[in-house]
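User: Small ask, check this?
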Amino acid sequence: MRGRMNAPPVRPDSRLVPSKRYVIEGLPVSGAFNGSTVHVGGRRLLAYRTPDATRSIGFAWLDEDFRTVPGSATLTGLTLNEDPRLLIAGDGRLFLTTGYCGSPGGNRIELRRLAVAEPHAVVEDAVIGKFDHVLGWPGYARRVEKNWAPFEAGGRLWYVYSLDPHRILGVDVRSGTVSLAYETEFARPSWWDERWGSDLRLTAPPARLAGGAFLSTWHASRDGGYWSGFYTFEGEPPFRVLRFAEAPAVTPADASGVNRQNPLAKRCVFVCGMELDEPGDEVVLTGGDNDHSLVAFRFRLADVLGDLRPREPGRAAVRRHGHTDVALVHATATPNIGDLSSAPSHYFDLGRAARQDLAPDLDLRGRNVVVGGGGLLGSGYGPRILNILRSRPRRLVLWGVGLNDAWRELPDWVSQCDLVGCRQTGLPVRWVPCASCRSTLFDLPNRAAHDYVYFLHFDAEPPPVRPGSPVMKNNVGTMREAVAFLGSGRTVVTNSYHGVYWATLLGRRVVMPEPMGDTATKFSRMRHPPAVLAPGEDLEAAAARAAPYSGALEECRRATQLFYQDVMDVLA
């Protein structure tokens, strides 16, 4: 149950020596390794992985001398995950990032928010993302992803992806995606010893110093030996490297025993966690000793910072990635709740997106432009989109737009856009539903209290209303109120496009009075068509034909997620 303290070994290949070395014991499985620690509410939390084929993640609470608190060690149901890294955000939120090794085609990184239940339980609060693709990175191909180092800055979550060059990924918690945000040039310094290896990778989550910069860690390997050291980078974008270690802090001499998990890693201490205590002049690194046990090292912070040398000149050029200048164009001059709620930026991170109304004569020359959503491909808004195209934007994306009024087929000029997603099916472009399916409102419980509710378009001839049935128009209230209203009915009767769409996402039966003339265009070719109520037909008969689409929400969300990834690649 005790944290066994060892004297640091003699290490001729390092100038930086830990003041103490601990072996963490007392866990429910023998051979746990690759641990990470943080302080949560004044207590030290450890995350670790098991050595067996399940590769499970476990938690335990430790005292200040790295002794396991009796009864606090638990295993989770999280399997096929390795190298856990804990991050505590400035507002106290607790995150766990791991490398998932059970997916075909390459490992991925997973990010979860955790919650602590007294006295010892640590539970998953939410899955933020499962990252097997990096958006905004031209030419990115799926690969084995490992060793991303998470940190928080400006209220946002980030990852350090690589050191050479220093690549920073931004996390979009709304869409569960990561994108390449910044890239600054950095290369191994001139004092680098080739014995330490060549490929610089990340280890522990960075920690912010009082001066604002981040203290971070790296590792490299050669001939089965692992070296790890410190460096610092800027505390705000673009997060350039500032200083780099003169020598490693952890070396193959710190490893012990035989590595039975990975025979190629002959002498490996693998760092996964870092604690920073500036008032106490201390840095703690935690990790795994040769894949057979958990270890922790204490260093004097003054020694760590004193060992850092300034980045060499000419190694800090900035490449800003992605989509920092995006004009998001949609119909804002309308009271229609559905149209107002269809803008993709409500649900996805599109960078510094400036929202603009789809007005006549927009000149967006040289800009990245995303138009959508809503029924914009019609006589009203279609010519305005064509005018944007003629102004020669850098990129033009149509997202979740739909045919309307007399436009029953796509105009030829649509093929000149860089990426097109249309909310109707059966067209020579990709089906992409309205982005409002990403709203968390559809995850809230909605109890049906009425047999029928009527959600009516404010600017259309209303159908006969069944006596006693609630009625709401689509120009009153908010999306939240509209979704709650639609969910209150077992069957929804509506002549509104978003009334049909949102009720379908809620799993309700949907009946639509038969549209007449050009109005029928926007309801044509729907992926999940409603039951059509013919003139004079009995409502109950139409409702009996209306079948809920139980998988519609998941299908629409999956399609919009995939389209978002392609949008990011196009705008990069």
Observations:
- The longest strand covers residues 121-131.
- The chain has a mean pLDDT of 90.
- DSSP finds seven helices and 37 strands in the chain.
- Helices lie at 301-306, 337-340, 382-390, 479-487, 497-505, 539-545, 552-571.
